[in-house]
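2024-03-11 09:14:02 DEBUG pipeline.ingest accepted 1 chain
2024-03-11 09:14:02 DEBUG pipeline.ingest length=123
2024-03-11 09:14:03 DEBUG pipeline.predict start
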Amino acid sequence: MEFDGLSHRVIGCAIEVHRALGPGLLESAYEQCLAHEFTRSGIPFKLQHPQPVEYKGIQLDCGYRIDLLVDDQLILELKSVSKLAGIHVAQMLTCMKLSNVKVGLLINFNVTKLKDGIKRFVL
């Protein structure tokens, strides 16, 4: 996989969190720790960023949230599951389409080696 500079920095922070905590925690724990690492590293981000749904020309707040929106150009969807499923991929792609953000990382922290839990998507 090829990653741009921002993705490399983000993955580095995710690896740091995974090394410190290991697998088995709730997604919310990884999310908060990753937000802390981004702050320490000077990476701009929005946590639980609201994502409205556009329907017939109007925007509706349906309760969707982007786990982490990094520098307004990279979506992070965090999971802590035994295995990523097709629905996780569908959620990521839908989120990217709704937000018009072209790059996303789906990161599953419930793995032995974090590199095995990262999937990159580009629209």
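2024-03-11 09:14:41 DEBUG pipeline.report The mean pLDDT is 95.
2024-03-11 09:14:41 DEBUG pipeline.predict end
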